[in-house]
Amino acid sequence: MTELTPENWRRVDAYFTDTLVGHDEALEHAVAEQEAAGLPAIEVAPVSGKLLNLLARIGGARRVLEIGTLGGYSTIWMARGIPDDGLVTTIEAEPVNASVARASIDRAGVGEKVEIRIGRGEDVLPTLTGPYDLVFIDADKESNALYLEWAARLGHPGTVVVVDNTVRSGDVADPAASTPQIEGVRRGLEMLGADPRFDATALQTLDRKGWDGVAIAVLTDVVEGYDDALEP
């Protein structure tokens, strides 16, 4: 059996990427532009981008909400997975990031299906009107529970919710790890496990981004009428 090492899991990731995703000029250009602008290299891996695309297509999503645009890489994947009259609303706190993303999204030919809202999620989310069919959460981890609350409010029974970066190189399950990011991830996962509005699972991933994971949930039929302490 092949030994589990970073070199070997990255080789498997490259094999999956080459075999199942392939090369895409627009997506690769988006990553290159992001790097050239000095944005952090924290976009999803190609296999994860393809997963988001497939989830949009499998669920027949027409309206997608993304929290955390960065350079637009995952935005392009999801925009390609919805119909021509669909819409991805993506929230980005940093205007520079939003500008880089806008150019890459337009260059990829999906600009008409994407609107970028600039501002912090906690400020922008209350201004949106649902329902959304797919919600992708990939922003500051400290706010995961807040973003999940808004995903429930802006979704409908059957809405798919995806939360990225849920393993954090194993720190999520390490009692000694207590950074604000880790605590935020834990609060989000605990909410997914306890809140009756969600039915969720999580998967560990090993790819070019390292050891991490993703949580996937579906909103249940108790979305409407659920009462909580969050003020709109």
Automatic annotation (TrEMBL):
Give EC number(s), comma-separated: 2.1.1.-
Asked if the keyword Methyltransferase belongs to this entry, the reply reads yes
**Can you cite a GO biological process for this protein?**
methylation
Q: Which Pfam families match?
A: Methyltransf_3
Keywords from the UniProt entry: Methyltransferase, S-adenosyl-L-methionine, Transferase
The source's domain of life comes to: Bacteria
Concerning InterPro entries, the annotation shows: Cation-dep_OMT (IPR050362), SAM-dependent_MTases_sf (IPR029063), SAM_O-MeTrfase (IPR002935)
Q: Which CDD domains match?
A: AdoMet_MTases
Q: Per the record's keyword annotation, is Transcription regulation included, yes or no? A: no
SUPFAM superfamilies according to UniProt: S-adenosyl-L-methionine-dependent methyltransferases (SSF53335)
Gene Ontology MF, one: methyltransferase activity
* Name of protein: O-methyltransferase
